[in-house]
Specification:
By secondary structure, the protein is α+β, with helices and mostly antiparallel strands. The protein contains four helices and seven strands, in the order βαββαβββααβ. Belongs to the polypeptide deformylase family.
Length: 196
């Protein structure tokens, strides 16, 4: 089932999310719905706060990035089919050179800005079977993980922008929070009671 994505301005997007256990209600259905919702909106990642749930859960599928002709064959291969579920994740290390990449977010449609992030990340997490992993990632995979991880920490990519950039996009953000935007996927806006 495709769920509405909550828009910029919703309080759930600014909350630090809480851990879950393997008896979380209808967990497999939730995962299925989150993947359906992400694919429907042409996303490469989706965090539970983006569908209104303040829990430490996000998923990624970087396959769409693998079609970027500017990437090396090795980079394309790494991105193609990289699909993961991250539960109760904790980034333990961010290192390497900081680099800029033009990021967007399903909760902040039509806003894209360069964000600087470290190139390598080490993360502890549980997979969809609640088995523990500690892994390191780099490049675009690390970036997608860092972006989604920020969501479960109550941080948006716009929080990482300079004060000048924030002022320049303020009008767009206000319009998004009021629902004054056209998107081709379902969204729920802060001032609306009913789902769109």
């Amino acid at each position: 089932m495709i769920l509405p994505i909550v828009a910029y301005g919703h309080q759930v997007l600014k909350k630090k999310a809480i851990d879950i256990t393997k008896d979380y209600p209808e967990f497999n259905t939730l995962l299925e719905n989150m993947f359906d919702t992400m694919y429907n909106a042409s996303g490469v990642g989706l965090a539970a706060p983006q569908i209104g749930l303040p829990i430490r859960l996000f998923l990624v599928d970087t396959t769409p990035f693998s079609e970027d002709e500017d990437l090396t064959a090795d980079e394309q291969k790494a991105l193609n089919g990289f699909k993961r579920v991250f539960i109760n994740a904790k980034i333990t290390k961010e290192e390497g050179e900081e680099w800029a990449f033009n990021e967007g977010c399903l909760s902040i449609p039509d806003v894209r800005e360069d964000v600087f992030r470290k190139s390598n990340v080490t993360i502890e997490y549980l997979d969809e079977n609640f088995e523990k992993h500690t892994e390191s990632f780099d490049g675009l995979i690390a970036r997608v993980i860092q972006h989604e991880y920020d969501h479960i920490e109550g941080v948006l990519f716009t929080d990482k922008l300079s004060s000048l950039k924030k002022r320049l996009i303020k009008g767009k953000l206000v319009n998004i929070s009021k629902g004054k935007i056209n998107v081709d996927y379902r969204m729920r806006f802060p001032d609306q009671k009913k789902k769109r």
